[in-house]
């Protein structure tokens, strides 16, 4: 389990993006993280992965300080070294038990071609393969379905469901709420740098209706003026 207590993250002395946040993420579950633009999702993920230093608070995994070595992190935008092939990229991750060719039967990537020539979707699939090869106990996936075709999206859904059964702790963000409703065991709603509510699976649909109504009310006045 990941336990986050009193987490605060600030940019400079004034701009607080995570505000005294509390959150528990159980192992063997898939957790969704949602929030409107500016809610602090990326900052929270960066803090978990050690890319941002918290101003205060604690982050623990299995009752000890959370370590970057525990985490496989998939950012929204993936970076690859120039002039290397897909296979060379995957060989950067030291896991001899990972059968690249067998896994690539699911992703159909031209692994011996330069990544520079890959499409956006191919790059996303390669980055996912890298995360899977790392085989860490925690997976943090920021918009993992962006750029994927329908078939690969369903393949990733199946992979994550199987990893859950191996007691991985999985945290996913997505702008497509339906993809989280279909996949997650719990969804956490982030607003103004704080977790406002954590929703169990049986309440996903009512949460979706409430969130969409809130969004509709936010834009109604402006639309009335424009239309």
How much of the sequence is in beta strands? 25-35%
Structural class: alpha/beta
Work out the helicity level: 25-40%
Q: What is the typical, i.e. mean, pLDDT?
A: 92
Q: Total number of helical segments?
A: 7
- What order do the helices and strands follow? EEEHEEEHHHEHEHEEH
Characterize the biggest β-sheet. Answer: 6 strands, mixed
Kindly report the spatial arrangement of strands forming the biggest sheet.
6-7-8-3-9-10
Envelope shape: globular
List keywords for this structure.
227 residues, alpha/beta, 10 strands
Summarize the structure.
With 227 residues, this protein is an alpha/beta fold.
What do you see in this structure?
36% of the residues lie in helices and 27% in strands. The chain is α/β, with parallel strands linked by helices and 227 residues long. The strands form two sheets. A six-stranded mixed sheet has the order 6-7-8-3-9-10, with helices on both faces. β9 and β10 (194-200) form a beta hairpin. α3 runs antiparallel to α4 (120-134). The longest helix has 23 residues, at 204-226. The mean pLDDT is 92.
